[in-house]
């Protein structure tokens, strides 16, 4: 009887592989853990039609905003989803790393299947058009002379916008009053003059320069998306801060699904039409496959844990 077992098992494996090789066979849901109009939401809605274009199969990519608890609600839903390749989501740094460090999440980034990174969006300091702050030096000097008077709009506490502001405080001795906002509300508050300065990513600011002045970005060099915007580094403030935004799924996703999605995303990012759409939407592209994405998150996690142990960013 044993002589028949191996062929039967092998046949079953071939059937299973052949069946999954048809992935995708139905629509794919992408969970965005932040509100509509924010950087992650814009990114997904811009790339979704191109992922559809390069996936085999006539399927749709459906965006689902699951907001709350600084991304944790959406990530918990992603974590708990069936790992069949039909529910994936966006994970972002630093929050996917910092929230578990803070003890606010029951999972870590290692509890997901990483697919690929899509964006590395530098932090930016933004003010209402016509502000008295014409550059970063103006802002810092005033905040040093008037501690806590300057209000700074950010996303959630412990997120990339907040940590960027804390880095500026630590480097310069300036003191700000941080005001957290969900989604695109930080940008709206800045444009409306409800706060003195907004800390949010370049991609969320670059297409609103009729209403905001971007004082500088926290990057090694100027961005191709708008080379006219200076870095903080060239203004004398050596701060590097950004948000990575990539795709992930529940733990245990089939490798075939990961490869299909990663390949489709890579093709999308190489599509000239998409590249123009991305530029128009302020999406700062930076593809990294699963291996590179994993290595980058591991290094970032190690760095954040060392910082938390020495000087926790939440008290």
TrEMBL record:
Keyword field contains Signal: yes
Entry keywords, A to Z: Signal
InterPro entries assigned to the protein according to its UniProt record, in alphabetical order: BUG (IPR005064), Bug_dom1 (IPR042100)
Pfam families xref list: TctC
Signal peptide: 1-21
Family of the protein in this entry: Belongs to the UPF0065 (bug) family.
Protein name: 3-phosphoglycerate dehydrogenase
Natural source organism: Thalassospira profundimaris
């Amino acid at each position: 009887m044993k002589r028949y077992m191996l062929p039967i098992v092998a046949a079953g494996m071939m059937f299973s592989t052949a069946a999954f090789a048809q992935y995708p066979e139905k629509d794919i849901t992408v969970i965005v853990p932040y509100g509509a109009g924010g950087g992650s939401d814009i990114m997904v809605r811009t790339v979704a039609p191109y992922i559809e274009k390069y996936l085999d199969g006539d399927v749709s990519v459906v965006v689902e905003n699951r907001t709350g608890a600084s991304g944790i609600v959406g990530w918990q839903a992603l974590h708990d989803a069936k790992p069949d390749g039909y529910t994936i989501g966006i994970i972002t740094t630093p929050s996917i790393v910092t929230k578990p460090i803070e003890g606010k999440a029951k999972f870590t980034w290692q509890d997901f299947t990483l697919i690929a990174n899509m964006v590395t969006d530098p932090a930016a300091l933004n003010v209402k058009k016509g502000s008295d702050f014409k550059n970063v030096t103006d802002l810092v000097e005033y905040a040093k002379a008037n501690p806590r008077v300057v209000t700074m709009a950010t996303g959630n506490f412990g997120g990339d916008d907040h940590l960027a502001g804390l880095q500026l405080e630590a480097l310069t001795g300036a003191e700000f009053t941080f005001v957290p906002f969900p989604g695109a509300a930080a940008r709206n508050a800045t444009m409306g003059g409800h706060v003195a300065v907004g800390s949010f990513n370049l991609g969320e600011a670059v297409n609103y320069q009729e209403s905001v002045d971007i004082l500088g970005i926290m990057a090694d060099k100027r961005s191709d998306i708008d080379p006219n915007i200076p870095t903080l580094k060239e203004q004398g403030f050596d701060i590097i801060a950004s948000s990575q935004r990539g795709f992930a799924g529940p733990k245990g996703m089939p490798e075939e699904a990961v490869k299909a999605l990663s390949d489709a995303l890579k093709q999308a990012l190489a599509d000239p039409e998409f590249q123009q759409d991305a530029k128009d939407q302020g999406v700062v592209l930076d593809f990294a496959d699963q291996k590179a994405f994993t290595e980058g998150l591991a290094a970032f996690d190690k760095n954040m844990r060392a910082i938390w142990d020495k000087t926790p960013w939440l008290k």
